[in-house]
Amino acid sequence: MDLLLNKCCDGSESNGSSFDLKQEKKTLSKIGFAYFILILIMFLTPNIIVFFTGNADMHYILFFNLIAFTLGGLVLYYLLKDIPESDSLKDNTLNIPQYLYYLIWGYGLMMIGYLLTTIISSLFAPSITNPLQSFDQSNIIATFIYAVILGPIFEELFFRKLLISRFAKYGEIFAILTSALLFALYHMNIFQFLGVFLFGIVLAFVYLRTNNIIYVITIHQISNFFGLVVPNLLGSNQTWIGIINIFDLIIMGLAGIFSIYFIFKVKFRDNGLNISKFENVKFFFLNPAIIIFIIFALLIARLNLG
Description:
Elements lengths: L20 H33 L4 H23 L15 H29 L7 H5 L3 H28 L4 H15 L3 H21 L2 H22 L3 H28 L13 H7 L2 H17 L2
Helix pairs in contact: 1-2, 1-10, 1-11, 2-5, 3-7, 3-8, 3-9, 5-6, 5-7, 5-8, 6-7, 7-8
């Protein structure tokens, strides 16, 4: 079964094409600035609304976050609209077995990340509370609408459609890891970081190889449903909890196998520019906006721990 794992994109950008160092640095800095503004909007908007309304109820905060999603999306699009998208992305269709493969891989890696984080935190910081727990315990309908329906749509547009479409020309590895890292930092939650980062790698890879935002949105939605909604539906029913735990262990085992194959067998398309593999990393991550983005995300994540 062809899983698109080794189907590299054959875009018009080829090795040896012209590279304007000054222009590329300016472009990457502009993208970095756009995502710093996004995370600023996502953090400040609900907090400002809560400050002026005095309403800190979780149900209302979820609505305030929806306002932040909308505002952030509009601003991000405006800041990025003049940056051309790469023409190296090619449309590919996933059949049902292929789609299930990536769904299992992505969800399983996310669960592995959460499990490792839980183990590490219990060993070194057992008194720290995961701020995501308050979200998990909120109204099930609000959780479903926000985390399963709307959140994945906005986040995939932010970190796959808008970002990867502009990063593909710098090479698949750079596009995948940068998208996953910004996606993880954007959540501003230390407990989520590793799981979201690993999940983001799969989502970025699927988007790069299919150029289809619907695939990654639905994979994200289904994964959030199983990760956030199902545990709330089960409540304290130990029988069903045990079944779900076994299900998650199987999925994590499969995801581990898929990851080993991914690491050793997948061939990535390199950037088509006259630039070393590490130059684009240096240009992007050493620009002030991204440095501030990372510091801000980590600071808020630390403050969220209480």
